[in-house]
Amino acid sequence: MMINLSERLQKVASFIPIGSVLADIGSDHAYLPIYTMQNNITKMAIAGEVAEGPFQAAKASVMANELSDLIEVRKGDGLAVIHKEDLVDCITICGMGGPLIASILDKGKDKIGANTRLVLQPNIASHAVRKWLIDEKWELITETILEEDGHIYEILVAERGNPLKPYHNAEKEIYFGPFLLKEKSEVFRKKWAHERKEWERIYKQLENVEERDAIKQKKEQLMKYMTWYEEERL
Description:
With 234 residues, this protein is an alpha/beta fold. The protein has helices spanning 7-14, 31-38, 52-64, 98-107, 126-135, 170-176, 178-183, 186-206, 213-231, and strands at 20-25, 42-49, 71-75, 90-96, 117-122, 138-148, 151-160.
């Protein structure tokens, strides 16, 4: 039974190197590793899940597709499911918040090999992932943005390298994404137009609040974001 992936996961799969050993963290029903095996993208895969329900669902999917000899479903927290002898050279983490993805990577960074590619799809706060990549000496090699079923997703791809290579104005580009900011696609503009309205709404609410230090800092942060928005003519 051939797996049909969502557009979001198809795009993620397109960044997985041919012939790689994949570890898909938070694999849910293991659809991504099943797809990569069925389409000859990966030669082996690990589907990692921390919760019992998704773990059992992943096992059932792998068995139903007769791929138990090529995809191992493991229960564990984050990158703890990866063993050195697995020779994993691509890790995917999709559908979580940016801070959680950064936390998973940080907690398990000793499990990530030097020649590994990271393909990361945060649902929110992608800047938290970019910040982690810079801090840990990973180079963001490309990124993309797409809209599916009313949701906008960003996908970040990184390898070991010069962490500052794609950045010119690091603070702004960490927030917006250096590749995405340069391209300024229609979906990208749509995302930030929505965010701009939210910043303005929150800022106006804070105008009526007693200006303690935390409120002042939040207003300054929002003003900075709105200034960036205007500078980039989004």
